[in-house]
Amino acid sequence: MNDEKEKDKGRDDCGKNQGEAADIIKELGLLASGSNFKSDVQYINIIGSIEGHSVLPQDNKTTKYEHLIPELIAVEENPEIKGLLLVLNTVGGDVEAGLALSELVAGISKPTVSLVLGGGHSIGIPLAVSADYSFVAKTATMTLHPIRTSGTLITAEPTFEYMKKTQERVVNFIVEHSGASKEDIEEKMNCTDNMANDVGTLLFGPDAVEMGLIDSLGTLTNALGKLRAMIKEKN
């Protein structure tokens, strides 16, 4: 009788763990630490729009930066985690939220690798270059363009000065964490003949590598292999 109760309890616990794991994957796109899969690498996805201080409409696919901050802190703090793989397929989003996450990734002392799949546009570029080593898929694209603003715009000199300084923050971060030159980045940001009805430059994977924005073309296997090699070297 007791054996039957133990079996029932085991099945209930298993179902509960699976349910919790599914909820975490659904809400955060993260592998649950309590699942059967064990790894010493933390995988973090940045998908859709990066949501910052303003809540985006329900029909937008978003990554909420307040969800990722504790996960990034855990990478640094948890002794069982040896490295971070950052996977991006993002259209960009909130500039301050994107820069905040980028600074956190850049400040992690453990090995970090990023992989751009599909697209890593706008503020997604600082996130891609924030890792120690970056990969981009051959078919992925990355868009460099000036920062944008929405809502009420006060047409006063301080407003434009603030926007200029904000763009400088983004450009300077990219320059400091990649092999691209400031002149090349700004030229492509302000290009008027590359994108229809817009200002900026659409870069395909090989273009991003050629200008030094991203370190290498690669796949998931390449990114994991590089990260494992970096972890081994560090240890």
3D architecture notes:
The protein has helices at residues 2-28, 65-77, 95-106, 124-129, 157-176, 182-189, 205-210, 220-234, and strands at 41-51, 62-64, 83-93, 112-120, 133-136, 141-144, 201-204, 216-217. With 235 residues, it is α/β, with parallel strands linked by helices. The strands form two sheets. The chain has a six-stranded parallel beta sheet, with helices on both faces. The chain has a two-stranded antiparallel ribbon with strand order 6-7. Helix 4 links the parallel strand 4 and strand 5 (133-136). The relative contact order is 0.12.
Highlighted features:
single chain, 235 residues, alpha/beta, 2-enoyl-CoA Hydratase, Chain A, domain 1, six-stranded parallel β-sheet, two-stranded antiparallel ribbon, 8 strands, 20% strand, globular
Helix content: 40-55%
CATH architecture type of the largest domain:
Alpha-Beta Complex
* Tally of domains: 2
Largest sheet: 6 strands, parallel
Low-confidence stretches are none
Q: What name does CATH use for the topology of the largest domain?
A: 2-enoyl-CoA Hydratase, Chain A, domain 1
Task: Name the CATH homologous superfamily of the largest domain.
Answer: 2-enoyl-CoA Hydratase, Chain A, domain 1
Strand line-up of the largest beta sheet: 2-1-3-4-5-8
End-to-end Cα distance, whole Å, is 50 Å
Q: On the 0-100 scale, what is the average pLDDT?
A: 85
Number of strands: 8
Q: Which geometry do the CA atoms define?
A: globular
